[in-house]
Amino acid sequence: MKLSIIGLVTLGAACVVLAGCADVKPWQRGNLAREQMALDPDPHSGDPAHKPAIYPELDAASRTHGFTFGITQVLGRNTLAGLTAGYTRQSGSLGNPYKTVYVRGEITPEEYYDLWQASELDWSKVTTLEVVGVELFREVRPDVRNQLSVSMRLNQYLPALKAAPHFDYRYYRDDWGIASHTVELQWVQVLTRTVTLTPGVRYYSQSRADFSAPYFLAPRTDGH
Known about the structure:
Blueprint: H1 2-19, E1 62-76, E2 79-92, E3 100-102, H2 109-117, E4 131-133, E5 136-138, E6 144-156, E7 163-174, E8 179-190, E9 196-197, E10 200-206
């Protein structure tokens, strides 16, 4: 019933619209072609108070080089172990252009006043950062990052239970000061020939980068 009512309402609205359409001859369409008759897809675009955000062109590149080395060893009839090590080097533009950071004092009140009095606004005269607001600046990250990771795995099959506990540990560190530990334990339980139940628990911890903070109460000396 609801579908029928909606269909009738839609059909009725269409009939009203069609009924309201006038039969305009080709030689009678001159006024409709006038500039002031054009339908503006964005009615606010001509409003002086309407100032959409302007983003700079994202024309930057980055490179990533890395390698991974792994070894798997059979320790017994029901025991399997693995070790993996990896190294990655990133260079180039590694920042996020859509993230901003609050830095108090990067531009002093006197500098704000001088810029306001100047005939042309040029932020580069007072800061090397990209200004996006009052004491808000585009995030800047180092242009090189070296990453190292080591993973260890141990799987043990238990014939009596038709199950296999899996233990995994991963350590990660980079030269930005970030270090993380990941510990994961899974229990792979065979229920039938086609059904396997795998409950697990995972623990993860990570430190922050040396230059990371929710805000800065003073300009940083390293530029990050």
